[in-house]
Write a structure and sequence with these properties.
The complex is a heterodimer. Chain A has nine helices and twelve strands. Chain A is α/β, with parallel strands linked by helices. The two termini of chain B are about 30 Å apart. Classes of the chains: A alpha/beta, B mainly alpha.
């Protein structure tokens, strides 16, 4: 669980977002949405302690995020940035790095660590590329490998920045289905999404950010009913008879 | 997840731990072979049996004197400097996230060279002072580059550019010293090119503590350097103290480069070339790459030194020149021979 209380975030003393308050519950998929440049990524990076907080407080599992040690925090919260390096290592080696916060001073992997890495690869369906170089995989394939690494951290909370970028439509759906399952297993999953219909379709709670603050944090059907998203994005959000969301131009 | 199809069918040559051990064993053999050649060949060549016989003979035997006072120190210096510069190159390439980085390119060697030359100009005849000064110079240059880039935003381009600027200033300093102290800096031409013609045990033992400390630190850091290579954000997200790891890796590379420069001079190319070749053989896992680079660097410099002694015998060529002459084309062929012509994305 991760809780934002009156949070202000930004770069170099200039706030991008202020007074953001909501709670991402465990067992739920929470989506951060908003127009380009509204501060979704900045908020996520701050929650991941990559940026320092400009105001307010972030609580992880009921404790203030700032009191965690580095490794302790990495055991509680896994963070997947949008831009990632592509080192020349094989898939298994990358996924094993997810165990880093669990390793002792000798950095020695135990049998449990290895089993955990295999399980994470299995779950994300990347086991078949186990010995392949990361550089030989496509962007979408690498995305899944990085997700397996995040899973391998065995943290209660996953913070993912645009996890479905790079993917074509069917794989976007597959990935979101998988994230949905992870949250159903009890994890707190927070994702930045730029696709409004996807967010409405898959998230349990949608946090709408714009104009330097948080508009609302609502379940998708309530957000749809409120019409807030239409105003912020300048589109018409529609719902088909089967419940599927889609957007149309305003006119 | 069944619709997920792999877009490639070719798979990576599997580099199991066993295969990596074989690579290490082969490189160890190569290094030992190079050392044997270095002991046997020179302006006066001996058979191996003659060499072993000389060790047991009396002090008047010229072969024994040559072996103990010339060949052994020289071979040890070659191996030590090659290993040190190669490992320093591996660390700098990882920390600066840049395939172009090496102690030579970013001015760490120039820093070590400037201070070593300064020490030998002001305090002639003190090997320990030269080693310490070389370390101070290497660390000073490395930290200056790091801090400059930190202030200007730590992108890998700024780091290398800052290194080139600092290296240029220090090289100017080296040249100024050579003009101001022409007597004290005897052999400074050889120092500039890098070479081992004046090898003594004393020079080596002065540098040895720095070298060993750097090597041990590099090995201890190797798992953390692997995490660092995932990129700053991912590494920090895994709980790695990025700043501390970077600092310690720079410290280790300064210990190594400073030690090597203090007795071998400004050897170029080893720190750039060897890590790339070693990576081809053993992959990018630093727990394996660091020992492999050390062995390959040692063998490479030793072999170049043997050739420089033998080809123009009885004259000698500074091995640093040969190193670049052989290393350059080899490096280019490595770059061009790679599939898609791209070694690095």
């Amino acid at each position: 669980m991760i809780e934002f209380r009156g949070v202000a975030v930004g770069y170099d003393g200039t706030p991008v977002l202020q007074n953001v308050s909501f709670t991402a519950q465990s067992g739920q998929l929470t989506a951060l949405i908003g127009p380009n440049g509204c501060g979704k990524t900045t908020l996520l990076r701050t929650a991941a302690r990559q940026l320092s907080l400009m105001g307010g407080a972030v609580q992880v599992d009921g404790r203030d995020a700032s009191v965690f040690g580095r490794r302790e925090f990495a055991r509680a919260v896994a963070y997947m940035p949008q831009i990632r390096a592509v080192p020349d290592i094989d898939v298994y080696a990358l996924v094993c790095h997810g165990r880093f916060p669990h390793l002792g001073l000798s950095r020695h992997m135990t049998e449990y660590d290895r089993v955990s890495a295999e399980r994470a690869m299995e779950r994300m369906g990347v086991s078949r590329w186990r010995d392949r170089s990361l550089r030989e995989l496509s962007g979408g394939e690498r995305q899944r490998v990085y997700l397996a690494m995040a899973l391998c951290q065995e943290s209660g909370t996953l913070l993912l920045d645009e996890p479905s970028a790079w993917l074509d439509a069917p794989h976007q759906f597959e990935l979101l289905d998988e994230l949905k399952k992870l949250s159903a297993d009890g994890k707190t999953v927070v994702i930045v999404l730029h696709d409004l219909p996807h967010a409405l379709q898959y998230a349990d709670r949608v946090v709408l950010l714009s104009d330097g603050g948080m508009k609302v944090a609502l379940p998708p059907d309530e957000l749809f009913a409120s019409g807030f998203a239409d105003g912020v994005f300048g589109v018409r959000v529609c719902r088909a008879a089967d419940g599927a969301y889609y957007v149309q131009p305003r006119h | 997840m069944n619709t997920w199809q792999s877009s490639y069918t070719r798979s990576l040559p599997i580099r199991s731990d066993k295969q990596k051990l074989h690579v290490i064993a082969a490189l160890t053999g190569l290094m030992l072979l190079a050392a044997m050649l270095s002991l046997a060949f020179g302006s006066q060549s001996y058979s191996l049996s003659r060499l072993f016989g000389a060790l047991g003979s009396d002090a008047a035997d010229p072969a024994r004197r040559i072996l103990l006072h010339v060949r052994i120190p020289r071979t040890l210096e070659c191996a030590a400097s090659g290993a040190a510069l190669a490992v320093a190159g591996v660390l700098l390439q990882a920390v600066l996230n840049n395939a172009m980085a090496s102690p030579n390119v970013i001015g760490v060697n120039a820093g070590a060279g400037f201070f070593a030359l300064l020490a030998s100009s002001l305090l002639p005849g003190s090997a320990a002072a030269v080693s310490a000064a070389a370390f101070v110079g290497a660390l000073g240059a490395a930290m200056l580059i790091y801090l400059l880039a930190l202030r200007a935003g730590l992108s890998r381009t700024t780091l290398v550019l800052a290194g080139i600027a600092v290296g240029g200033m220090l090289t100017a300093g080296v040249n100024a010293l050579r003009l101001l102290y022409p007597d004290a800096a005897v052999g400074s031409d050889a120092f500039m090119a890098g070479g081992f013609s004046g090898a003594t045990m004393e020079n080596l033992t002065g540098a040895l503590p720095f070298l060993l400390a750097g090597l041990i630190l590099a090995l201890i850091l190797s798992p953390d350097v692997n995490v660092l290579c995932l990129g700053e954000e991912s590494a920090a997200g895994l709980g790695l103290s990025v700043g501390r790891t970077r600092f310690l890796a720079i410290l280790a590379s300064a210990l190594l480069a400073g030690a090597a420069v203090s007795f071998a001079g400004l050897l170029s190319f080893v720190g750039l070339l060897v890590p790339h070749i070693a990576r081809k053989f053993i992959g990018s896992d630093h727990r394996w790459l660091i020992p492999a680079s050390a062995l390959l660097g040692a063998a490479f410099v030793t072999i170049c030194d043997v050739i420089s002694r033998v080809v123009f015998a009885p004259y000698e060529f500074p091995s640093g020149i040969l190193l670049s002459l052989l290393g350059g084309p080899f490096f280019l062929s490595l770059l061009l021979g790679h599939k898609r012509g791209r070694l690095y994305d």
